[in-house]
Design goal:
Elements (H helix, E strand, L loop, with lengths): L2 H34 L7 H30 L4 H22 L11 H4 L17 H4 L14 H76 L1 H19 L7 E2 H16 L6 E6 L8 E2 L5 H10 L7 E10 L2 E9 L12 H13 L4 E6 L3 E9 L1
Parallel strand pairs: 2-4
Antiparallel strand pairs: 1-3, 4-5, 5-7, 6-7
Length: 383
């Protein structure tokens, strides 16, 4: 199994999609100042100020996406990832603190002046003494918004920077991890399909030599009985082998080709027995464009000729195939002449059941009944 053939094309495709989404988000963040100030007259000073605020966060997002997550978190160095992330958050917070303008909040005028809409000429001078009725009162209390505690303001700003940085890391890590999870699931699916394909190939290759050797033995026995029919048998065998070698790489063949294969095999095997065998076959004439896995029924037919025919007792093989309700049905019934020490199933039945499980999971029916006189197998597969 070549993992690189599975991984590279799909991984590159997912990586391109991830990079495109990241770049779109990055460009949207850069363009956000133009959206924010679209209603007012554009001032580049405001745009540059917004870019200056966004730059540390975008740098943090980029480093986390392309370096810390893939080199630490994805390599299971989680403690080191946490340490590096915290260092980056603290570095960004310190940078924002140093870069923050001082005294951004000015002291506000008294409330009486704050809402006074008179012109400066009509306003009394500020150093005018208070009216006599207010002279005995203490100093006028300041407006609550006039002053803010600088230390408290700094702590709030630092907390906002830390929370914002952690939020950026959380979003970036979640985005990167989601794409990794999608890519890993897709890779696992491809590996599972590859394993199923390899197991199916093994099972099919296990059938082919076994099938070929049994057929050769029958042809060899026919040579001593009837050389002319043996020559015809060799021709039919060559057709069978040509059909087996010309199977498509997709792993499915047309139903009509499978029916032709079974008919040729039945004719080839029946040359040995002539009138000693009651042989009945019934195949559908329609639905021949349906595609199915190759050699799915050959093991059952092979076992029927191997264990269902006797030179001393009456023998019969009845084969029937039909299509209904989106299912292909196959039934084979034969007389049972196996010896007590022989396993009538051989590798054929277990091989067939394994292939059905791999191909259709639980969406199939395969039932085998057997007694001392008769063997019957029924199979239904979706089409």
């Amino acid at each position: 199994m070549n993992l690189q053939k599975i991984k590279k094309p799909e991984a590159a495709k997912m990586q391109r999609l991830e990079t495109i989404i990241f770049l779109v988000f990055f460009l949207f963040a850069i363009a956000s100042p133009f959206v924010l100030y679209s209603g007012d007259e554009l001032e580049w000073s405001l745009v540059f100020r917004q870019w200056r605020k966004l730059a540390p966060y975008l740098l943090l997002l980029t480093i986390n996406h392309f370096w810390t997550v893939p080199h630490f978190l994805f390599r299971k160095k989680r403690k080191l990832y946490i340490i590096v992330s915290l260092v980056m958050v603290m570095t960004l917070t310190i940078f924002r603190y140093v870069d923050r303008p001082k005294n951004r909040i000015q002291a506000l005028p008294p409330s009486s002046e704050l809402f006074d809409d008179r012109s400066p000429r009509d306003k009394p001078p500020r150093d005018r003494p208070p009216p006599p009725e207010f002279a005995d009162r203490g100093p006028r209390e300041s407006h609550p918004l006039r002053r803010l505690d600088p230390d408290r303001e700094t702590l709030i700003a630092l907390a906002n920077d830390i929370v914002g940085s952690l939020f950026i890391l959380l979003i970036g890590t979640g985005f990167r991890s989601t794409f990794r999870l999608i890519n890993t699931e897709h890779l696992n699916t491809q590996l599972e399909k590859e394993n199923v394909h390899n197991r199916l190939s093994f099972l099919k290759n296990q059938i082919s030599p076994h099938f070929f050797m049994n057929t050769l033995n029958n042809v060899h026995s026919l040579i001593a009985i009837n050389p002319e029919e043996a020559q015809e048998a060799v021709i039919k065998l060559s057709r069978l082998m040509r059909t087996m070698l010309s199977e498509p790489e997709s792993g499915h063949i047309l139903l009509k080709n499978e029916i032709t294969f079974l008919k040729n095999y039945v004719e080839l095997m029946s040359l040995r027995f002539n009138d000693k065998l009651e042989l009945k076959t019934k195949f559908p004439s329609n639905y021949t464009d349906i595609r199915i896995p190759p050699m799915l029924f050959s093991s059952l037919v092979e076992n029927a000729f191997k264990y269902g025919v006797s030179y001393k007792a009456a023998s019969y093989i009845h084969i029937q195939m039909s299509v209904d309700d989106h299912f292909l049905n196959f039934e084979i019934t034969n007389s049972n002449h196996k010896q007590g020490s022989e396993d009538s199933n051989g590798i054929g039945l277990s091989n067939t059941r394994d292939r059905l499980n791999l191909l259709y999971q639980s969406n199939f029916h395969f039932d085998v009944t057997e007694d001392d006189k008769e063997f019957k197998a029924k199979m239904s597969i979706p089409i």
